[in-house]
Amino acid sequence: MEIGTRVEAENFMTGEIRHTASAYLTFVSLDSSGKPNPIPPLIFETEEEIRRNKQAQMRREIRLKENKLGI
Description:
- This protein is α+β, with helices and mostly antiparallel strands.
- It is 32% helix and 27% strand.
- Strand 1 (2-10) and strand 2 form a beta hairpin.
């Protein structure tokens, strides 16, 4: 499962909030022996969820190709 994160910094004096970092974190469900374990499929209900899932699939494909090439 891929989780998108966004980090923001806030100036408490002015209230200004600014974006400082973004990242995608990948999590894997493991069984009791530490091996990858399938999880139930997600149900996407909105256009945004569908779009974000397609983007995640594209990032995964790139990541797998890069790993295969040793990049």
